[in-house]
Structures are given as structure tokens and as C-alpha cells.
Amino acid sequence: MQFQQLQYFVAVAETRHFTRAAELVHVAQPSLSQQIKALERELGADLFLRARGNITLTDAGEALLPLARRILADADTARYEVQELVQLRRGRVRLGATPSLCTGLLPDVLRAFHDRYPGIRLLIEEGGSHDLVRGLARGALDLALVVLPLPTPAPALTTVELLREDLVVVSSPEVPAPGGGGRVVRVADLEGERLVMFRHGYDLRELTVAACRAEGFEPDFAVEGGEMDAVLGFVRSGLGVAVVPRMVAARTGRGLRVTPLARPGLHRTIALAHRSDVAPPRAARELQRMLLER
User: Fold this and answer.
1) Which of 137, 143, 212, 224 could form a disulfide with 219 if both were Cys (CB 3.0 to 4.6 A apart)?
2) Which residues of the chain have pLDDT under 50?
């Protein structure tokens, strides 16, 4: 059974005339008649009672007509849905990002994307780079913002460097400033500080701990295990200090003292990643373009 045959069948059923039906679907009348006969052979039943000047539906034709109309309507709906998606009126983007990037980088970009494409649903998954890489690999994400280098080799991913971000130290104004209150603080100065530390698997945790160990000491945790909002809240309450991205401090640092790290400081490299073997959907490619051009 061919889609075109159903179109011809419905046209004949509605006009009750082979010639007028052929004109309606813009095909020669002999070709239309041949296709109707082929459909009848396929179904094993006559669809029309043919008498001079009188075309009527058989019982088989009556049974097929509502089904054929539904199939044709579904095809029109499918065509419309795909066109909507191609033209970025509808669809979805599944984006993964670390919590700090959801706080610092993404709000402005996602607002601009939503303003331009209000019909596209944005599904955001927060997690560490390791979890986001796994999400990409199993097809659960279209794009992910990850911290380089990746925690494990990922040859099936394509990564494009997006930005290199400075890290800063945040503390409560109600407690003594870290490093003696200077304009900058060294990583070595954190040896005497209680740190508010992120949970395991958090990229910032691994980076901060590695930097402290490179200076020859183990960091002292006042509290650990939080996400970004919790860490900032604990710091505001005076529990300790934390190392966070500059963008996060700039956006949500109200009520916090922000102190830059002395050169060479600490940095992290953010990249946009997607699977190498599967092209991201059109909407995801558009969001990728906006992130790269931000």
C-alpha cells in the first residue's frame, strides 16, 4: 500500500468521479485508475462499484475511507511538525552544565536564546564533567559545558574551548580577610583557613584540592558536600572561605568579600562538547552558535 494510492482513493471517494479526481490530484486519469486497481489487488477487495455515471463505495471502501483520511491527516501533521522544527519554532535542547556555569554563564545566554526561539524547550541537567560526559555518551544530552581536561579520555566527543575563567576567594565580611587582608591572596595563604568545600565529583573541588597539595598542604574543611548555592550561603554565614569562579562571584556575590588570587592564580577552561558521531539537532546547533559568539 502506497501513500499516493490512498490520496487517489480519497479523491475518488469524495468526487465519485475518476476524471474529476484525477484533476484534483494533478495526475492523468489512466494513471489514477491503475493505482486504484493496484490498491484493490493489494487489499484483496474492490473499493468502488463502477457503473456508468455512478461511482459508489463498496463495504471495503467504506471501511477504508476514514482510515485513509486519518493517515493522510497524520502525514500532514508530521510534515507540519518537521517544518516547525526545521524553522526553529518547536523542538528541544538538552544541555548539561556544571552548577557554577548554570549560575554564572548560562542565564544571559539562555534568556537571549529563549527570546529568539520561544517555542524551543530548554532542558538543563546540572552535574560534574564526569557525569555530563556519560550523559553525552548515552545520548541523554545534546550539548554539555564541561571543564577541561576531561576527567577521562573521551575520543567519541568533540570539544570546542569556550572560555578561560579566573577563580577567586570569597569570604564573609564579618570575619577576618584571608591572607591577612591584602588585595590578593595566595593559594599558600589558604593553609591557615577553613574551607567550605564542594561535594565529591565537583570540578572546583578537585581543582582547589590539587592546588593546595601543590603548595604542600592538605586543605582543612569546615564543611563539605554542598552545591554552589549552599557553599555561598555557608561562606556568608562565616563558616569558612571558598574558591569559586569569578563569574559566579560577580553574579551572586552580594554579601561576600571577593579577593583575587595572586598570580599565576587559578583558572579553569570551559569547553562545549557534543558527540562526534551524531550531529546535534538544529536547535542545539543554534544554541551552540550563540554560546560560541557570546
Assistant:
1) 212
2) none
Distance from C-alpha of 32 to C-alpha of 4, rounded to nearest angstrom: 10
Q: What angle do CA 195, 198, 199 make, to 5 degrees?
A: 130
| Three-state SS sequence of the chain | CCHHHHHHHHHHHHHCCHHHHHHHCCCCHHHHHHHHHHHHHHHCCCCEEEECCEEEECHHHHHHHHHHHHHHHHHHHHHHHHHHHHCCCCEEEEEEECHHHHHHCHHHHHHHHHHHCCCEEEEEEECCHHHHHHHHHCCCCCEEEEEECCCCCCCCEEEEEEEEEEEEEEECCCCCCHHHHCCCECHHHHHHCEEEEECCCCHHHHHHHHHHHHCCCCCEEEEEEECHHHHHHHHHCCCCEEEEEHHHHHHHCCCCEEEEECCCCCEEEEEEEEECCCCCCHHHHHHHHHHHCC
HSE, side-chain direction, 13 A CA sphere, residue 90: 7
Rounded CA-CA distance 188/166 in Å is: 17
